[in-house]
């Protein structure tokens, strides 16, 4: 494709930092660059503790472990999300309970959550779709009113805020992704945001294979041993070196991505009625990070036609999630077609446009011009 859907971000000092890491002879987890990344993130998430992880998937799994989610429990979450959100629940033997999303932000519909709470409900996993915050005051009220834990899947949300607070830093726990498709990347990687002081010590144990090795390294015990369940959730310091260069450029990366987002929005939103499309909606409390830009079309057939037309012109456009409640695993948990009508409609009609840090103004202009041409062809076709 002449214009790909995405390109992994490069900011300039990644190779320099990797060379520095290799020269230090400490390349395993929790080395010098891991600590530097942690310091940057803890400045963003003031008052919270941050642990780098091997992926957002593992950060979410750590959330379930920390909250003692297990067999017989239920967790509310959207179906319009990546499979990792639900796997974090299912791997613990609990049941994901899928809730429909709002038509405006495509985030979990807070007005539907309370009706899904039962005596078995243990937590709510909120997903901030596209780096646009969910209704966190309402979600916090529901969680507190029923004694539930609140987890933020902020895989797409680094640098975005809700009511001035960083996404991932509002619930009890949050999870970030540094996968190559995200704004800030290291190939594969993630972070756990711990917003409750009483969960910090156990989080370090779970992340260190269930041992108290962190306390040993801090000189608090004379040897370390197996004290809890856990796994190896530490990323290599080589990955952290790459990530450190990225995090140092977070503001610049997000500004550029937001500029492209705003350009798309500025050109397409005035044409919604004429073109019979819908562009993203941003609540007043939300400050997004330009992670993605989508267009909602009239039908699945129109969506497929537009994607094919854009690809024929050398521009890679894609749809997004297949709703989890419509998957084979969703059926095993008792869900099926018709259960979540908004999710099903949106998933069938959504097209994502190319958006990445190195994208030029000319490329962004060509994406919109081509989209308008493809849409126009469909309008004039008999």
Features:
2 domains, 12 strands, 7-stranded mixed beta sheet, globular, Aspartate Aminotransferase, domain 2, 382 residues, alpha/beta, Aspartate Aminotransferase, domain 1, 3-stranded antiparallel beta sheet
Structural commentary:
The protein starts with 13 loop residues before the first helix and ends with a helix. It contains 15 helices and 12 strands. It is α/β, with parallel strands linked by helices and 382 residues long. It has 2 domains: 235 residues, Type I PLP-dependent aspartate aminotransferase-like (Major domain) (Aspartate Aminotransferase, domain 2, 3-Layer(aba) Sandwich), CATH 3.40.640.10; 131 residues, Aspartate Aminotransferase, domain 1. Helix 1 packs antiparallel against helix 9 and helix 12 crosses helix 15.
CATH topology name of the largest domain, in short, is Aspartate Aminotransferase, domain 2
Mean pLDDT: 96
Oligomer: single chain
**Residues in helix, %:** 25-40%
CATH homologous superfamily designation of the largest domain: Type I PLP-dependent aspartate aminotransferase-like (Major domain)
Low-pLDDT windows of residues = none
The domain count comes to 2
The rounded distance between the terminal residues' Cα atoms is 29 Å
Instruction: Outline the biggest β-sheet.
Output: 7 strands, mixed
Strand content: 5-15%
- Radius of gyration, in Å, reads 21 Å
What is the N-to-C succession of helices and strands? HHEHEHEHEHEEEEEHHHHHEEHHHEH
Q: SS-based structural class?
A: alpha/beta
- The CATH first-level class of the largest domain comes to Alpha Beta
Main-sheet strand order equals 1-9-8-5-4-2-3
CATH architecture of the largest domain: 3-Layer(aba) Sandwich
